[in-house]
């Protein structure tokens, strides 16, 4: 796919991505389970139905900002989206968000298909240049970026016939404060049936550990940089120094004696609890050991009765 | 090796004291000629002056051991002690470790000799050095430990002995060493007034595995009762479950008067206690425990005062004197003051109206020192936990244990799911 030359900048909000993925997951889990004979991973994913919907947002000059999305029903016989429903939804959204226009449509799948062009053309009467947002639901662990691609349509001359084809465009992710909170929440979802409290605690602590590790490595980079600047190996960059000093002034947040007292007390409490836990563990091991020694070596220990054997 | 002449032996020793292979070679040769050396110990004694103990420790040790093996006449005892002390001072550790039992027997002879001469102080330093040289690790209990502690006790050098007691013991060569070590160690701790450590050591003797009764355990049990009364202000006659059944059944029979003392202590009545001590004075004297018993009586006051802290928030000095059977309020004030200084109770004395207010433990756990203390405790307990887990695992693989468990399997098949089933006959 060639890349777009329209010069439009696309901004995608995480809400859209979450919506699309939610739609897909819902439909997939509600559809019929694959037959037991099909052990092939690819066959089960190809039987996952494609979902369709509309994306809405704002277009200001050369910037297209996609804010929200809603679902649409796809009619396979006519190979088009349900038009009346779309218009009804559009009216409802217009009442709440008067600024939002229909910017395009979305679907799931690995790659854009030929049939998609049909839908795309149908939408062209609402928006002369609709966008096509494609989400790839296959989880690819090697891939580090989001599996979301945005396509535009352009008129290209192929084999002498002018045709509309999809071209890929680049985009950035744009967040509002509220969205940041919800994305954070989604990222920290623990498996609800994730075994005992122990595994959940372990998952929670692992998350904290990796966050602290990343913080530590970044601070180390800054420290190294500042050291080099002090030695004179790198020219002094005052704006960077100002940023660093403002960062440092943010901590510690409070510096009063009462805070110190409370902080140390809580720290000591946590240490005491872990000490107590280790104590209990040690005592239980020792108890087992003593039982074993008594059984093995004490000739006159109780015969016949069973000792508590935990 | 022709050992018949002193010269040949000397040259041999001097020649083969170089590298470790030479030393092993020399060791073998000396072992072969051990009897010869021993029978002619007197003649060989002269060559001691010709070889240097720091370089030729192995040869020196063999000859020295032969010299000390027999009975030593009075006249030579002093010289012998000097030479042994000098040897311990300068000998090289690797050479000693080739024949540790010879070294130990030499040191034991030293110990005997100084005790005979009545000058235990002379052996304190050398024995300490000997222990450090022969120990494979700080947790290793050598046969020299109890001798060293006994010498410290006789010489009243409690502090030096106490330094050795601070190491935790994990490996023991001989059970008798362990018993003696804990017993003497407990006595040294009493001398240093560290009753907590003394209690721990006596507890170890009493609960150590033993197949038959031994006198050390009996004596230790008597002292254990007394120290428990002094330090903990109470005593329980139930034994923990890791005590051997032999001890559980027999120890009480040998220490009847002490148990009665503990019973009368728990009533809290000082005059009754004093009467009891008077009546049984010679029994306590026979066990050399009269001093401890007197300390028990004086600790009774402290016990009574401590019980008062649990009931009252404030109390007048007069009331304290009455309840604790102390003669005058002035004396009661002194007792309370002493206890506050020792950190056994938290109180404030108001001298104007003679009232004592009992306070809570002022420790708030919000200092950095507390963090360090807890942190170091956590580190220690982590090490201990690792040791315990390895011991537990090795115990589970012990064939004696597994055979006994298989016996019990006849009673119930479902209890012992962790015993591997494929070992079932």
Report on this structure.
- The complex is a heterodimer of chains A (310) and B (425).
- With 310 residues, chain A is α/β, with parallel strands linked by helices.
- Chain A has a domain at 9-30 and 48-173: 3-Layer(aba) Sandwich (Cytidine Deaminase, domain 2).
- Chain A is built from eight helices and ten strands.
- Chain A has an eight-stranded mixed beta sheet with strand order 9-8-7-6-2-3-1-10. A two-stranded antiparallel ribbon of chain A has the order 4-5.
- The radius of gyration of chain A is 30 Å and the shape is extended.
- Chain B is 68% helix and 4% strand.
- The mean pLDDT of chain B is 80.
- In chain B, the strands form two sheets. Chain B has a three-stranded antiparallel beta sheet with strand order 3-5-4.
- Chain B contains 23 helices and five strands.
- Chain B is mainly alpha-helical and 425 residues long.
- The longest helix of chain B is centred in the C-terminal third of the chain and has 29 residues, at 368-396.
- Chain B is elongated and about 90 Å long.
- Chain B has helices spanning 6-15, 20-32, 34-39, 41-44, 57-69, 74-90, 93-98, 100-117, 121-134, 144-155, 158-165, 175-191, 195-207, 215-232, 245-254, 256-267, 270-279, 281-286, 290-311, 317-323, 329-342, 368-396, 399-409, and strands spanning 140-141, 171-172, 314-316, 347-350, 355-358.
- The relative contact order of chain B is 0.04.
- The A-B interface holds A 260-262, 264-265, 267-269, 271-272, 274-275, 278-279, 281-282, 285-286, 288-290, 292-301, 304, 306, 309 and B 209, 211, 241-242, 244-246, 364-368, 370-371, 374-375, 377-378, 381-382, 384-385, 388-389, 391-392, 395-396, 398, 400-401, 404-405, 408, 411-412, 415-416.
- Chain B: It comes from Helianthus annuus.
- Chain B: Keywords: Cytoplasm, DNA-binding, Nucleus, Proteasome, Signalosome.
- Chain B: One of its GO terms (molecular function) is DNA binding.
- Chain B: Belongs to the CSN3 family.
- Chain B: It is found in: Cytoplasm; Nucleus.
- Chain A: Residues 24-48 are annotated as: Disordered.
């Amino acid at each position: 796919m060639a890349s777009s030359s329209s010069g439009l900048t696309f901004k995608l909000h995480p809400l859209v991505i979450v919506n699309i993925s939610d739609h897909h997951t819902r439909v997939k889990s509600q559809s019929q389970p694959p037959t037991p004979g099909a052990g092939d991973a690819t066959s089960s994913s190809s039987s996952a139905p494609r979902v369709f919907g509309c994306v809405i947002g704002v277009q200001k000059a050369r910037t297209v900002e996609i804010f929200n999305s809603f679902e649409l029903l796809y009619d396979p016989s006519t190979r088009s989206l349900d038009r009346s429903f779309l218009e009804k939804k559009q009216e409802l959204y217009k009442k709440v968000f008067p600024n939002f226009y229909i910017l395009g449509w979305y679907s799931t799948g690995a790659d854009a298909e030929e049939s998609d062009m049909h839908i795309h053309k149908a939408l062209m009467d609402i928006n002369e240049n609709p966008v096509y947002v494609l989400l790839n639901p296959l989880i690819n662990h090697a891939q580090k970026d989001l599996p979301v691609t945005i396509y535009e349509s352009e008129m290209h001359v192929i084999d002498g016939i002018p045709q509309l084809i999809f071209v890929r465009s680049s985009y950035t992710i744009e967040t509002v404060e509220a969205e940041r909170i919800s994305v954070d929440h989604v990222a920290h979802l623990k498996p609800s049936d994730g075994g005992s409290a122990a595994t959940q605690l372990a998952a929670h602590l692992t998350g904290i550990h990796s966050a602290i590790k990343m913080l530590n490595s970044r601070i180390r980079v800054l420290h190294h940089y500042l050291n080099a600047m002090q030695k004179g190996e790198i020219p002094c960059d005052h704006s960077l120094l100002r940023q660093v000093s403002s960062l440092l002034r943010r901590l510690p947040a409070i510096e009063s004696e009462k805070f110190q007292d409370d902080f140390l007390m809580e720290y000591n409490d946590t240490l005491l609890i872990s000490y107590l836990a280790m104590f209990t563990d040690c005592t239980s091991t020792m108890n087992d050991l003593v039982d074993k020694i008594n059984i093995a070596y004490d000739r006159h220990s109780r015969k016949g009765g069973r000792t508590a054997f935990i | 090796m022709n050992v018949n002449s002193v010269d040949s032996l000397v040259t041999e020793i001097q020649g083969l004291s170089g590298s470790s292979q030479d030393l092993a070679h020399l060791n073998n040769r000396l072992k072969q000629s051990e009897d010869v050396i021993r029978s002619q110990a007197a003649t060989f004694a002269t060559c001691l002056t010709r070889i240097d103990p720091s370089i030729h420790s192995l040869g020196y040790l063999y000859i020295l051991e032969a010299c000390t093996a027999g009975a030593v006449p009075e006249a030579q005892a002093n010289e012998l002690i000097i030479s042994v002390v000098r040897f311990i001072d300068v000998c090289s550790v690797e050479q000693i470790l080739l024949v540790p039992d010879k070294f130990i027997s030499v040191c034991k002879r030293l110990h005997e000799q100084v005790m005979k001469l009545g000058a235990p102080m002379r052996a304190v330093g050398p024995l300490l050095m000997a222990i450090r040289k022969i120990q494979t690790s700080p947790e290793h209990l050598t046969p020299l430990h109890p001798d060293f502690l006994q010498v410290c006790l006789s010489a009243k050098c409690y502090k030096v002995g106490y330094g050795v007691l601070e190491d935790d013991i994990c490996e023991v060569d001989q059970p008798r060493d362990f018993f003696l070590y804990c017993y003497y160690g407990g006595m040294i701790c009493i001398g240093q007034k560290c009753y907590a450590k003394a209690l721990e050591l006596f507890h170890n003797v009493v609960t150590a595995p033993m197949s038959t009764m031994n006198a050390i355990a009996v004596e230790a049990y008597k002292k254990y009762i007394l120290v428990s009364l002094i330090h903990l202000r109470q005593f329980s006659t139930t034994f923990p479950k890791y005590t051997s059944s032999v001890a559980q059944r027999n120890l009480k029979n040998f220490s009847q008067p002490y148990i009665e003392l503990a019973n009368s202590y728990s009533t809290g009545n000082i005059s009754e206690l004093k009467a009891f001590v008077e009546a049984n004075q010679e029994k306590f004297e026979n066990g050399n425990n009269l001093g401890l018993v007197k300390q028990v009586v004086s600790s009774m006051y402290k016990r009574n005062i401590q019980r008062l802290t649990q009931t009252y928030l404030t109390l007048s000095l007069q009331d304290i004197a009455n309840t604790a059977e102390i003669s005058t309020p002035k004396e009661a004030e002194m007792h309370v003051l002493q206890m506050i200084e020792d950190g056994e109770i938290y109180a404030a004395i108001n001298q104007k109206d003679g009232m004592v207010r009992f306070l809570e433990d002022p420790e708030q756990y919000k200092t950095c020192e507390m963090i360090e203390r807890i942190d170091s405790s956590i580190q220690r307990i982590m090490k201990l936990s690792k040791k315990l887990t390895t011991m537990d695992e090795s115990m589970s693989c012990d064939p004696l244990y597994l055979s006994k468990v298989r016996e019990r399997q006849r009673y119930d098949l479902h209890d012992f799911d962790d015993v591997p089933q494929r070992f079932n006959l």
